Amino acid sequence: MMEEISFKALWYRVSDSSALYPIPSSQRIILSRTLLLIKNADERDAGKWICQASNQFGEQRVEIRLFVNSYVSVHILPQVQIVNSGGIAIFNCSTTGSAIDNIEWLHNGKPLQEDNALTTGRDNLHFLSKASLLIQNVGRGDRGVYQCLVENHKSSAQAMAELKLGGKHTVPELIYTFIEQNVRPGPLISLKCSASGSPPPQFSWLLDSQPIMDVSLHHRFAIGQFVDMSGDVISHLNISHVRPDDGGLYKCIATNSMGGVEHSARLNVYGKSNKTFF
Question: Which residues form the Ig-like domain (predicted)?
Answer without folding.
Answer: 72-164, 172-268
